[in-house]
Amino acid sequence: xxxxxxxxxxxxxxxxxxxxxxxxxxxxxxxxxxxxxxxxxxxxxxxxxxxxxxxxxxxxxxxxxxxxxxxxxxx
Length: 75
Fold this sequence. Notes:
single chain
C-alpha cells in the first residue's frame, strides 16, 4: 500500500532518499521513489542515505516530539 513502509528492505545505501518532517518536528528518511505519506512534508531533496542522515542530525536536536505539552512538575 502506498505511503506505508515496504515489507522488504528498502534501506539499501545506493538508493536515493528524501528527508521528511511531520507537524511534531520529527524527521524520517523515506525512499525518494515512494509517495510521501499523509502528515509528512519533504524537508530535504533526494540524496544518498548518508547525506540525508547528516541533514537530520544537523536539524533534529531534540528527539522528543515538538508539540508535547509542557509537563513541568510543581514542587
